[in-house]
Amino acid sequence: MRVRIDEKDFINYPFLKESQNFVSSYAGSPERFLGTSTGKAALAQAKDRILSSFAGKSGQKTAARTSIPTDSEGIKIAVSGYALARVIISCMKDRMVIDRFTRNEAQKAYECLLDEEPDKKVFVATSLGIDISADEVPLVPYVELSSGMREERWRLVNRDIEHGMVKVKKNETDEILRECIRVAISRNLPLPIPQGICEVLSPVVKEISAAEQQHLLEQFGSVDESCFPPCMQALITALSAGTNISHPGRFALTAFLHNIGMNSSDIIGLYCRAPDFDLSRTMYQVEHISGRGGTEYTAPSCAAMRTTGVCVKKDQLCDRISHPLNYYKQKKRKDKRAAPVLSGNMLVNRNAGGAHRENEAGNSENIRDSRGHQQGEHDEENNKKNQS
Questions:
Q1: Pair 32, 200: CB distance under 8 Å
Q2: Phi, psi of 335 (to 5 degrees)
Q3: Quick one: CA torsion of 378, 379, 383, 385, rounded to 10 degrees?
Q4: Are 311 and 140 contacting, i.e. CB atoms less than 8 angstroms apart?
Q5: Are the C-beta atoms of 108 and 65 separated by less than 8 Å?
Q6: Which residues are CB-neighbours of 344 under 8 A, at least 6 positions away?
Q7: What Cα–Cα distance (Å) separates residue 276 from each residue in 247, 248, 272, 284, 371?
């Protein structure tokens, strides 16, 4: 029996081809559509979709779903809001925003599928190229899917493979389907959006960018080197000792420092002691990773850094996390809870981006600044000046 997909289903599964055709049937050109009342309402809905993805956490249940509109206008606003959200994040070209949006949208669709009638669930899965009744997945699609799944059990080396098929357990099928949705949503992002459309959307882009920066501040706070994961501490120590680090190491360190809020000039300063330091080349690399070229990069996952040999000196916390940014957030949160009330003389280290760390002067650690020097060296120099 043929499964019937109606307009209300497009709200839950806006990534389907049928949904895209539905939007094309009434929207026309983006410029014209944005000038209509439906387009303006859809733009507001698109902004809310993106902003709501900042609050969520990958894999967690999303906030309670609002009631699905039943009138034609409400359905158009909801479905085209998804399409406009993809246009907005394409104008932003921020990989962190794209990743949050696609994971949040995939989670919402996944939750709808869990309550869906079986035939419709099979229809959606088949549209994505997945047979949810099978206990195996072809190798090539599995490699694409598993690259975005962060648990160790999804790595290819931990799976059984027979005749080009990767074995999966029955209770893993829904998770694979959720990842299929995420891949479908993220495919081709960022889209090649004409500059004129991005200029029209620039007020919304700026508003979302400001909200993202606020979210990052709430997540990471000021830059605190003592909370860096061991891999990042090892890379900084190597640079400070005048040692060249590998290309994967440079990429991971630069992306990590940018992601937690350090500005480009401070990041460039870290590389000054490297034997092969070249200012113009370093500026280009740092600015490219930081988004100057149009695409902003996120630090690699722990699994990726194990593959490239950047993961070193693992500690107990490393065993419980899958990404260096998560390590940093958890360590800062833990240190904040355990921090005693300090009094008397304080040692405060601030970088140009406003990062700071406070320690009691009598028990302070040497903190490397952006030029690779140690705070203790500066203190010793200052003491000599005072004595003279």
A1: no
A2: -65, -35
A3: 20
A4: no
A5: yes
A6: 360, 361
A7: 12, 16, 9, 15, 15
Q: Please write the tens of the pLDDT for every residue from 323-366.
A: 999 999 888 887 666 654 333 332 223 233 333 333 332 332 33
Distance from C-alpha of 259 to C-alpha of 217, rounded to nearest angstrom: 10
The reply to whether omega before 203 is within 30° of 0 (cis) is no
DSSP 8-state code for residue 192:
-
Tokens in use for 175? Answer: 């998770």
Contact (CB, 8 A) for 10 and 75: yes
Pick the closest to residue 175 from 193, 198, 150 (CA basis): 150
For residue 3, what are the CA distances in angstroms to 123, 272, 300, 338?
7, 63, 41, 56
Condensed to tens digits (0 to 9), the pLDDT of residues 17-50 reads 999 999 999 988 888 999 999 999 999 999 999 9
Q: Which two tokens stand for residue 270?
A: 């870290």
pTM of the model: 0.63
Distance CA 370, CA 271 (A): 9
Instruction: Determine the straight-line distance between the first and last CA of the chain, rounded to whole angstroms.
Output: 93
Strand partners, 359: 347
CA distance 80 to 273: 51
Task: Specify whether the CB–CB gap between 239 and 273 falls below 8 A.
Answer: yes
Tokens coding 79: 């479905």
pLDDT tens across 178-211, in order?
999 999 998 889 999 999 999 999 999 999 988 8
Bridge partner list, 138: 165
Residue with tokens 């060296």: 377
- Give the span between the Cα atoms of 121 and 137, in whole angstroms: 18
Nearest to 106 by CA among 41, 3, 187: 187
